[in-house]
Amino acid sequence: MNSEKIEIFDTTLRDGEQVPGCKLNTEQKLIIAERLDKLGIDVIEAGFPVSSPGDFHSVSEISKLVKNAKVCGLTRANKKDIEIAAEALKYAKRPRIHTGIGTSDSHIKYKFNSTREDIIERAIDAVKYAKSFVEDVEFYAEDAGRTDNEFLARVCEAVIKAGATVLNIPDTTGYCLPEEYGQKIKYLKENVRGIEKAILSCHCHNDLGLATANSIAGAINGARQIECTINGLGERAGNTALEEVVMILRQHKDLNLHTNVNSKMLNTMSSLVSDLMGMPVQPNKAIIGANAFAHSSGIHQDGVIKNRETYEIMNPEDVGVNESSIILTARSGRSALAYRFKHIGFDVTKNELDFLYGEFLKVADGKKEVDNDDLTLMMTALTRKI
Length: 386
Ligand code: KIV
Ligand code: ZN
Description:
Bound molecules: 3-methyl-2-oxobutanoic acid, zinc ion
Strand content: 5-15%
Low-confidence stretches: none
Pathway: Amino-acid biosynthesis; L-leucine biosynthesis; L-leucine from 3-methyl-2-oxobutanoate: step 1/4
Protein name: 2-isopropylmalate synthase
Family: Belongs to the alpha-IPM synthase/homocitrate synthase family. LeuA type 1 subfamily.
Pfam families: HCS_D2, HMGL-like
Strand order of the largest sheet: 2-3-4-5-6-7-8-9
InterPro entries: 2-IPM_HCS-like, AIPM/Hcit_synth_CS, Aldolase_TIM, LeuA/HCS_post-cat, PYR_CT
């Protein structure tokens, strides 16, 4: 079976930038956008142009700069937002307007004080209006995760008729379980008339730590675009992490799904975004955390030194990390110690290792991590002993 492509829609510069303290200026956004384009992203959501003159300017400058990816601007379902987004995107080679409205009962009642019929009308009008400016219109049904499937299908059908090319099914509040979100996508695939004219997109938030799992469940059930951010940044607990989606699809060839992202750039991309946003990456973050390829317990270290496949399911080089690391702690064993001595140029014999291991344990019990300076001191002690 031929592998099918999943379009990667990056929203680091829009949903990611909504994180408190992560505001970027235009120059910083341009640096990130250029790198995202090189990374092989299909769609870059550059911002929400109506939200501020600064955001408008950034979207406009990104539109001029980006060579390959589609450039997308977010709007609410009203004329002013759409006109301003169209203006900001006018220099883009491949512009997309991303418009939409809340569809869950809670959004309809509390946000809009409205009715389901009115929401469908507003959705249709917004898509038609956006379509008068650009060919590529993505519609988001905000809070689709908590919208009942029958009504969601009616909304999808109506906006496809109005010209939407992509249907975004956001789990805005990160509430769904993977099985449930996957079934939602399957339901829409099977019940929306005209669905073959549009692609379904996953946009999952991470409030319960399920964003990536939900997005993958969506893709398995027929979605062909995943919306995500570098380092999983985004509102509250964040969005689906781009690096996780890319590596899951790369490692699980059995899914017959792939992306065009150059995974070898993931590590530097992550550092760039973290540095510019001033948002550190947690060390145990999957794929790009500092400990993602670090082994510190003796049993694991011994296995990895014999053959890295024992405890590694990915090659660190595939995500742009030179090599996995063997961290020396009080839990490390002789083979890790010998390995690290070799790494700094000392090939020790079995007898020497016995002595050095005793010295090592004395140091390791008093420290979180034993470093190369400690190893050099141990070698000096060994030389004195001889
Ligand atoms: O989470 C969400 O629903 C969104 C939409 C605006 C696409 O970010
Ligand atoms: Zn979102």
